[in-house]
Amino acid sequence: MNKNQVEGRANQAKGKVKEVVGKVTGNKETEYKGKAEKQGGKAESKYGDVKRDVKKATD
């Protein structure tokens, strides 16, 4: 795993927690921020996956 994959998955987890906390407390802003952070984490994780695949292909 590379740095982008690790950080992406960590951001996904943090975003999910924020999303759930927002839903439980009825705070829509926190819920939406959590969803956005989760999506950003997915994107970063995918970038890390592509980066890994490119490195494997060139080795």
- Amino- and carboxy-terminal Cα gap: 16 Å
Q: How many whole angstroms does the radius of gyration measure?
A: 14 Å
Mean pLDDT: 97
- State the share of residues found in helices, binned by percent: over 70%
Estimated share of beta-strand residues: under 5%
Unreliable stretches (pLDDT < 50, length at least 5) are: none
* Main sheet makeup: none
Compressed to H and E, one letter per element, the order equals HH
> Total number of β-strand segments?
0
| Quaternary structure of the protein | single chain
Provide a count of the helices. Answer: 2
Structural class label = mainly alpha
Sum up the overall morphology in one term.
rod-shaped
Describe this structure in words.
This protein is mostly helical and 59 residues long. It is built from 2 helices and no strands. It has helices spanning 3-25, 28-58. Helix 1 runs antiparallel to helix 2 (28-58). It starts with a helix and ends with a helix. The model has no long low-confidence stretch (mean pLDDT 97).
How do you describe this structure in short?
The chain has 59 residues and is an all-alpha fold. It has helices spanning 3-25, 28-58.
Give the topology, please:
Blueprint: H1 3-25, H2 28-58
List keywords for this structure.
mainly alpha; 59 residues; rod-shaped; single chain; 92% helix
